[in-house]
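dumping this here so i dont lose it again. seq + smiles for pyridoxal-5'-phosphate
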Amino acid sequence: MTLSIPPPFLPFTRPSIDEATIDDVAGVLRSGWLTSNGPKVQSFEMALSNYFSGRPVRTFNSGTCTMEIALRIAGVGPGDEVITTPNSWVATANVIIQVGATPVFADIDSRTHNIDTDQIAAAISPRTRAIIPVHMCGLPCDMDGLYALAAKHSLRVVEDAAQAIGSSWKGRRIGAFGDLISFSFQVNKNIMTGEGGCLVLNTGDEAALAEKYRLQGVSRSGLDGIDVDVLGGKNNMTEIAAAIGLAQLQRLATFNAQRLALARQYFHCFGEEFESEYGAELPVADFDHSNWHMFHIVLPVRMSRSAFMQRMLDLNIGVGFHYAAIHLFTLYRKRGFKEGMFPVAERVCRQIVTLPLFPSMTTTDVVRVVAAVKSILNQETS
Ligand SMILES: *Cc1c(COP(=O)(O)O)cnc(C)c1O
């Protein structure tokens, strides 16, 4: 009898946390100042502002509340329509409902999987107030087309850049230009704080409003002056999270370089014939703008995604699916959306899988993943 030792489980993502970061967090705990705008939050916001060409930045406790607050700052509310993509994490559309506005979807481009600018143009109505584009997997949307359209119709843009820290468009960093740009530091993102997010704003006034919205609408003056003039929530980042974020931000360039090298290795291993041979689709081979937040392939229609995922798991390889089409969730069907409305997103969202990609992964891991994908698709063909 031969005993084969299965290779260790390879997750589709995993955060990189070093001992120095753990020491920093211990330092925060020892300091006794754990939350509410302490020194770490202020340093983190300053470092982020620096990173985004000096624009004002405020932190929050999730990417979701960051986008919700961005919509409130943009003055979006009941009676307004906001155009977004059906191919995203559900948070992107949920925040529109959360502020009392109406989500309107525009289909995606079949290659980039990002919102299609022409489809946005077709969806604009007299009630449209804002657009929420998503830079899927860190691949930037068509920023020129998008901002030209927004300017033409006087629309606000809240970029869902949850996945796009370190991405760029024509030499300019995502977040360093544009209207309101929202990032997430959820644990799977290119840098993380456990949970968290930040918003890049246009003016000091917007930043002051962001501070109110994140903490009960409170503004303070002097030692005992306090007033509340808008309804805010409880969305502030903790000192613990900010300490993690500061350490992560220092390593962002290294993380993204490692992701890029692994993405190149994926293309190398799949080879130029992969798409034609297997009927599957690889992502856009963008080595200039993307931060390679994720590596997606679209399975051929003959392959059941759940069967594929099960076979990958049998080989001890974790895979994800990002995302399910938002408009087909029950909450959205109840608002009148149905199958067939956004055929490109529906096709992509049904067959897409996320392969492992994270900074501490090795090129050997990539070889193993690609061999597994090919063997599973081969079995399916024969
Ligand atoms: C992660 C993510 C969000 C939500 O961020 P949270 O920090 O989890 O609230 C929103 N949109 C996209 C595209 C994301 O990837």
